[in-house]
Fold these 4 entries.
Entry 1:
Amino acid sequence: MAHSNRDGFSSKFGVIAAAAGSAVGLGNIWRFPYVVGENGGGAFLLLYLFFIVLIGIPVMLSELMIGRKAQVNAFRAFPSLAPKAPFFKIVGIMGVAAAFLILSFYGVVAGWTVEYIWLAVTNQLAGQSNAELKVLFDTFSGSTIQPIFYLVVFMAMTAFIVRGGIQNGIEKYTKVLMPLLFVIIVVLCLRAVTLDGAMVGIEFLFKPDFSKITGDVILSALGQAFFSLSIGMGVIATYGSYISKKENLLNTAVSVSFADTLIAILSGVAIFPAVFAFGIEPGEGPGLVFVVLPQVFSQMMGGYVFAVAFFILLLIAALTSSVSLLEVVVAYFSEELKLERKKATVLAAVSITVLGVFCVVSPKLFDLFEWTSSNLLLPFGGLLIAIFVGWVLDKEVVRAELESHGKKVAIFKVIMLIVKYIAPVAVAIVLLQSLGVF
Ligand code: TRP
């Protein structure tokens, strides 16, 4: 792609909204609470925050920097910036593989969301007991035809948006709809924390019990940080290539990460008080929000409207993330394999949907894809990205890109220290440890 015909974002808020649109999704509202629940609460949250600041923000900044400097998508960016280090092409290739795996199970969960919009609209969620909601979820997600139908519906929507080109759609809608989602989550939080017995949930989320920390918990926290920020596979680099040189990339990385983390924590605050107030198992697994939130809506004034609005906005948040995933695969098919863009979109969407069907029929495969992508591929991609910026690129090139808006970045040295040593070593230790090397 030549520089001149690249779409740009029309405003600073537009870029942040689109990158935040990719970051904020099912990862924050569906995955974060259930992973926190499975990993024992507060101590996991603390590790998660630690990884966001120490590794997430620097890797996001690195990706933005790589994309903006190279002005091309992720798998072209590495060879174009460092022709002498062809090995780093692997980041782009792993990115395509990760996008494939992630989107195949992501589409299934997004399909559940579509089903829940339907259940909310037809008022089938209200007044159900805990046990009934659990049966409802288990029966639905354990069946075959319905989840596949909703998966196909969701993937068709994603493909439709990607085919039309990313910028026009995404920027316009996310700017309005993400703040709306935020408002609904805040209202949910207010309702949840005023339930009887809410305190236990707050303590579960915020009071770290360090005895709960194991190797698996550490790896899950790292994986969740990567998954939630959309980093480690080049999606953010591609967004970076659209950002104007006048923007301060450090600010962008910090704002996006802050927004993403805030939404995840608020989702936790909306969920855990209710989990304990209603006597649900925090380690319930992927069904957690789908079992808990309908009960919170039942206990709210205007619960019907909130439930409908919530699931619709959750679907939109999922869409702004899924388009960023599909775009990676489509860009690869169309630019590297030289397929026409429309054909590439159909081919990518259909093959990912087929993989998604396997996830519907086999929960084992679902788990495997989820685990491998977030806990292995993304951290490994992030490790290579940090090494690329820290060791392969010239330090002055990195500095010039980070300061292209015309102001000095005061913490440049700290950033380089993290990118060069701390992030690669930390990620390597966590990965090796999880592979049983230590
Ligand atoms: N971050 C998104 C979420 O939280 C999911 C996602 C979109 C993603 N694009 C990504 C994850 C790229 C990893 C890499 O829902």
Entry 2:
Amino acid sequence: MRIGNRQGRAVILVENGTIDVETTSKDRFSSSIDEAISHLDEVRSWWQSAAVGAPVDAFDESMFHELGPVVDNPSQVFAIGLNYHAHANEMGLNLPEVPMVFGKFASCLTGPFARVPRVSEMTDCEAELVIVIGRRGRDISVDDALDYVAEYCVGQDMSDRELQMRGSPAQFSMSKSFRHSGPVGPWLTSSDEVVDPNDLDIICKVNGQVFQDSNTSNMIFSVRDIIAYVSTVCELRPGDIFFTGSPDGTGKGQSPPRFLQLGDVVSTTIERLGTISNEVVAPM
Ligand code: ZN
């Protein structure tokens, strides 16, 4: 099952269009994508009986701009820094001994095809696997960790390297939380359709040129490790999301460094999960 946010309403994506969750369920579920995520098991079992004959709204690639953020207002947005060896090297930073956790503040989340602002001369992009938590929990074991994941999607961790490196030590949360710096989507793919979240090809292109080409198997700390580690401190709640870190090949890692320019189009693809695409524009 694929769930998305189309013009602010939760929809289920099918082969030839979208199904509105609220109207098709006769108001059993609201139009809120966050509500759908927090009642995902119920939505899923309803959908199994409602799928046949449900009214389909036409939807194709020409309407992708109608898609909004697949998580709109989570209580927590965790992000993991330096989680791929080659990326830590290109940033000139030591490998972390434990997951390096920071926050992307929730107001940065935006649609999968949203325009993103060039906030400084060192505006950069980072392709990342994003995981969506489906169950509440603390002190989750590594073995049980994937049971807490409801959905996966593609994310971009847009980053202002100028702000990130302005002081010492570097700081992450502020430099990665500007408006529209967290595109997520294009839709949510159920965890049962993703056999192994740490075996997915992940690619980022700028104007069609490959910047990042890796696989989530190259993470230093796996999805399981990250969930278990963060849950030793923070309660995880349905709808919380994790940006799980970026492979090498960011703009800062190009030689010479190549930061984003006005008019650039950043397209980010993860195997099984789809592609998001974001044009770089002047700050809005
Ligand atoms: Zn990142």
Entry 3:
Amino acid sequence: MSRIGNVNFVNKSLNQNNLTAKKKFGQNFLTDQNILKQIVAASRVTKEDAVIEIGGGLGALTEVLAINAGKVLTYEIDKDLVPILKNNLQAFGNVIILNEDILKVDIAKDIEQYLNDFKNIYVVANLPYYITTPIILKLLEADTRISRYVVMMQLEVADRICGKPKTKDYNALSVVVAYRAKATKVLKVPRTVFIPAPNVDSAVVCLDVYQEMPIKALNDEDFYKLLRISFMQRRKTFYNNLILGYDKEFVKKMLEDLRIKPSIRAEALELKDFVLLSDYITQNLAI
Ligand code: SAM
């Protein structure tokens, strides 16, 4: 049970400190006990496990995590919130609060420094929506010890994460997620449970990172670069996107050799096609 995740506590914490939620940091504070409990339950975290939280805010989710996990490492970018967060969580000896930008930290180093004693490391967070995609791409591409993500995001991004080829929701994020993890949408969350209410509804997504990847590129960097270039401009053909990042003649030959039509759209290609292309690049493109 969280003391913090309710309307009165959130309003009181902000008022007493002369603060309002900052839009530029994507601050929408959760005020629903039930949703908080469901998020933490979906993570299946136990006292044996450590959790990384992105955006502690006022500590509503941090508190439920501290009760259920062995250790919680929470990042909060907003220096105005950090003292309040520390104060709200002072009863817990297992919470580390870092006033850092998640996009700038070396996550593998922090895991080693703060969470090394734990076998399982999960990310559980109500993400700042303006940077959901860069956060997920950064963490998945970093290839860390994190084995599960239970993260709240706007519904539209959740649909993209779970997006299948040939649908409007399918993009580079869908492919990176499919490459590294099994994605499941676990909960839809209405906008009314946040202060302030965002303009869109949200969803909680669970990503179970593959311990044995079903399909693996020869070189991950080549694979991630290919994805970024492939989906750079949705309206363009696959060929026209590829030549933004690779030599024209090389692209022509690659598509010919792999029997892929230049006029195809990136959305029509599946994970295995991107791995095939990436391996071709690794083997044939001189650096
Ligand atoms: N966990 C709280 C809750 O559920 O009520 C707050 C969630 S709020 C959607 C997102 C939080 O992420 C805010 O507290 C915001 O200040 C923080 N944040 C935004 N950008 C960040 C970044 N780059 N690194 C770390 N925290 C960030």
Entry 4:
Amino acid sequence: MNKIVGGLFLTLEGGDGVGKSTLQRSLNQRISEAGLEVIMCREPGGTILGEKLRDALLGSKKKEVDALAELLVFLAARTQLSTEIIKPALERGAVVICDRFADSSIAYQHYGRGIEKSIIEDLNTIATTGLMPDRTILLDLDPSVGAKRKGQAQDYMEQETIDFHNRVREGYMYLARESPGRWLIVDALQNEDVIFDLVWSDLAQRIKD
Ligand code: TMP
């Protein structure tokens, strides 16, 4: 099995229904073919505790959950995932592809809910002991298109208004433009093969070196 010294930590971000899971599966296949160990995970979730927290939170009615309590649940799941799965995998030289990570909390809980950004940044640092993705792919899509793609199933965040989701989208754009060295912005309206090719041409160098 090939290894990358210190591993490679990739995260996929964006609104709901943008195609993160499809991209994650295609990347998994291509990177595994390059002989590397790939760990796929998602947030919230990816551990026994994290999946329980996910069910508890995303199965709730919006009005039952306080905004700070919501943030702390995401952070608890992130702490467990970072310690139990992500860090050991990176130490083994694996590629970790995580569907959402710390940036989701800035996008949703700061730009969406209005919790102060510096509080979330500090809590993210505590939860992950400062672990940052090497590359973050932002799949950008109009939230109304994302909602249509997802169909009728109204999960916890989909009970939010279109204004909320537009703020999240703009927040992601702001974050991505602020740190272009880490983020790759991809128009998620494109065909999934085109999206994969764009992302792969961005990542291939890091995988092959
Ligand atoms: P998903 O896994 O289907 O994308 O659902 C997770 C939902 O939780 C999604 O609507 C985004 C939201 N979320 C936050 O609001 N903050 C976070 O920190 C994370 C990880 C997810």
